[in-house]
Amino acid sequence: MIVDVTDLLVYRNALKLTRPVYRLANLIPKSHYKLKMQIISSAESIAPLIAEGYGKKKSAKEFRRFLEMAMGSSDETITHLRQIKILSETCRNIKPETCDALIDRYKILSKQLQNLIKKWQTF
């Protein structure tokens, strides 16, 4: 039984993924400050969106809406990771395999969100 938002695996996974994103973002050169802030912003927004939606879970429609926004932020983070991977061609301290690994983890997170959305569509 889910008693608290922390009981949701997708929420815990979203929180766990912020740390490697911070590490990667700190490797981005100052000349790409906007990209650094965008990836941090999109990654940071996922868990709070899930939490806010969970707080409104009495309305299945509202909960789904927040889960959909969280999924949008997860997918946005994937796009920023792809941009950083392109940047890795000229920035030696960024490894493309780090970007690929994070992309894979965010794809899993997006699928988890999609599955949760589908489950809440039956309510």
What labels describe this entry?
single chain; 123 residues; mainly alpha; 0% strand; elongated
Give the total of domains.
1
Low-confidence stretches: none
What is the H-and-E element order? HHHH
Describe the main β-sheet briefly. Answer: none
Shape category? elongated
CATH classification, class level: Mainly Alpha
Structural description of this entry:
The chain has 123 residues and is mainly α. The chain has one domain (5-120): 23S rRNA-intervening sequence (de novo design (two linked rop proteins), Up-down Bundle). The protein is built from four helices and no strands. The chain has helices at residues 9-25, 33-55, 60-87, 96-120. The chain is elongated, with a radius of gyration of 15 Å. It starts with 8 loop residues before the first helix and ends with a helix. 28% of the residues are buried. The mean pLDDT is 95.
